[in-house]
Amino acid sequence: MNFLQKFLKDESGATAIEYGLIAALVSVAIIGAVTTLGDKLGETFGFISDELGKAPTKTP
Fold it and tell me: pTM for this one?
């Protein structure tokens, strides 16, 4: 019974677990943002490329 009481009161490692959970949450947020912004950025550069392709060129 003493082992169980000591085990329940032992908080060593809790901080490391909390930091791990925070790092995982930040990673998920970064992945979501990069995925969303990456798609929009690709569309924007595609639009710019198409518009530049339509522009007349000057021949020497």
Answer: 0.54
Q: What does the alpha-carbon distance between residue 32 and residue 29 come to, in Å, rounded to a whole number?
A: 5
Residues in the chain: 60
Closest CA to 41 of 53, 30, 52, 49: 49
| Structure token pair of residue 1 | 């019974």
Question: What are the tens digits of pLDDT across the range 7-57?
Answer: 777 777 788 889 999 999 999 999 999 988 888 898 999 999 999 999 888
DSSP-H helix ranges across the chain: 2-9, 14-54
How far apart are alpha carbons 22 and 15 in whole angstroms?
11
Torsion sign (Cα): 18, 19, 24, 25: positive
